[in-house]
Amino acid sequence: MERNEALELIRKRVGNERLIKHMLAVEAVMKALAKHLGEDEQKWGLAGLVHDIDYDETSKDPERHGKLGASYLRELGYDEEITRAVESHAGHLPRETRLDKALFATDPLTGLIVAAALMHPSKSLKDVTVEFVLNRFKEKRFAAGADRDQIRTCEDLGLSLEEFISIALKAMQDISLDLGL
After folding, report:
1. pLDDT over 80 (residue 1)
2. Structural domain of 73
3. How far apart are CA 139 and CA 32, in angstroms?
4. Domains in the chain: how many in total?
5. Computed from CA positions of residues 108, 45, 28, 73, in that sequence, does the dihedral angle turn out positive or negative?
6. The domain that contains 99 carries what CATH number?
7. Whose CA is closest to 135, among 119, 149, 124, 150?
8. What separation in angstroms does the CA of 16 have from each of 4, 64, 135, 179?
9. Is residue 97 a contact partner of residue 85, using CB atoms and an 8 Å limit?
10. Average pLDDT of 87-101?
11. For 100-152, how does the pLDDT look when each residue is reduced to its tens digit (9 = 90+)?
C-alpha cells in the first residue's frame, strides 16, 4: 500500500479533521524515528498514518479500537507488522517489535506537542522548543490525556525523553502547515 492510497482511505473513513491531523502528525514522527533508528521509513510512516483508522467507529467502544482497524487493514493486504502495531498501540497485544513500541510512545506525544503549541503565545509549532514541551510534560494537569508513562516508554527504543521529544517536535514542525499550527 502506498502512502497516497492510505491517505485517500483515511479521508474516506475518518470524518474528524482534527483526528486526520493527529494521524498525519503520528506519521511524520514515526518516519523521523525510523530514520533515526535505521528502520523502514515508509512502513513506519504508514503505521502512523493508519493507526487510528477505526477511531470514528470505536470511539465509544475502546475495547474494539485497534482490533477493528487491524482487521480492516489485514483485509486490504497491509503488512502484518503494521497491522500488529495498530492493534498493539491500543493495548490488545504485547509490544514486541520496535515498530510496536514506537507507535505506542508516539501516539500520546503528538497530542502533548499540539497542546503545547496551542498554549504557546504564538500558537505556532515553529516557536515551540524542546524545553517548552518538557516543561509542559512535567505539569500533570496540562494535556492530562497525554499519558506521560506511555510517552516515557520511548526508553524501550533506547531514546531519552528529551531526545524523543526533539525528534518528534522537529518532525511535526516540518509539516506544521499540514497541521494548521
Report:
1. no
2. 3-179
3. 26
4. 1
5. negative
6. 1.10.3210.10
7. 119
8. 19, 19, 29, 13
9. yes
10. 94
11. 999 999 999 999 999 999 999 999 999 999 999 999 999 989 999 999 999 99
